[in-house]
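Appendix B. One record, verbatim.
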Amino acid sequence: QVQLVESGGGLVQAGGSLRLSCEAAGRTFSSYYMYWFRLAPGKEREFVARISWSGSVTSYADSVKGRFTISRDNAKNTVYLQMNSLKPEDTAVYYCAARLVGTGDYDWGQGTQVTVSS
């Protein structure tokens, strides 16, 4: 199991940027695929982005493609989500998740609130 702690959320105006960080502890970070999900009020949890263990493969939800960038620094046990051109509909609690390569089990962080004002 890996422990995850997100940071970097906050209040930003539409068109602005934020960078979320998720620091992992407890297991070999480079053995995990890393994800960002989000949960908005009244909606279901939504996949946002994913990055492979090496960082060479990424994928994004259509709703954030071209605006968000996921990256990782295995030396720092940290995954990032750079969010640009933010929209009010990006308002949500953002969760970091880790999935050990070869398994289907996720470990989750506690979430960080992102609020985008119009």
